[in-house]
Design brief:
By secondary structure, the protein is mainly α. The chain has helices spanning 2-21, 29-46, 50-73, 78-99, 102-132.
Length: 144
């Protein structure tokens, strides 16, 4: 009986460790890539100077991380998700204003939504092309 208990615990412990690690603050490589491209896109669209971009980056990274966490946490209830995102955007708008002027701070969210729409469009096109058997168009970038 003890043998079975030891064997069972040896099989279950690594699984619980893996599950526990998925809640860490570290973004997946795909999340990091999306965040970096979105950040570059927004910085280009806002015409940030080098100094502004250096101060903007850590604030945007924190915002993006919290946005992703909020989206994961409230995925099931769309109305609460929208409310939490609005609260998050209002809170970060004041932080963006400390880095850049008010007019450009308000445009951050417009460019974020624009980036998400364009990225979704590219994903849809790639899926359609894959279904139709066309080769994928690589090196398509949202950052111009």
């Amino acid at each position: 009986m003890k043998k079975w208990l030891v064997i069972l615990s040896l099989l279950l412990i690594p699984g619980t460790i893996v599950l526990a690690q998925s809640d860490t603050e570290e973004p997946t490589p795909q999340e990091s890539k999306i965040r970096d491209r979105m950040q570059e896109y927004i910085q280009n669209r806002l015409h940030l100077s080098r100094n502004e971009a250096e101060r903007f980056t850590p604030v945007f990274v924190r915002y993006f991380r919290e946005f992703a966490q909020t989206h994961r946490a409230y995925r099931g209830d769309r109305l609460i998700l929208q409310q939490k995102i609005i609260d998050l955007r209002l809170r970060y708008r004041t932080e963006f204003r400390q880095v850049i002027d008010e007019q450009r701070a308000n445009k951050v969210y417009h460019f974020e939504d624009e980036f998400r729409r364009k990225a979704a469009e590219i994903i849809r096109e790639n899926r359609r092309d894959r279904i139709e058997g066309k080769p994928l168009r690589r090196n398509r970038s949202l950052v111009q």
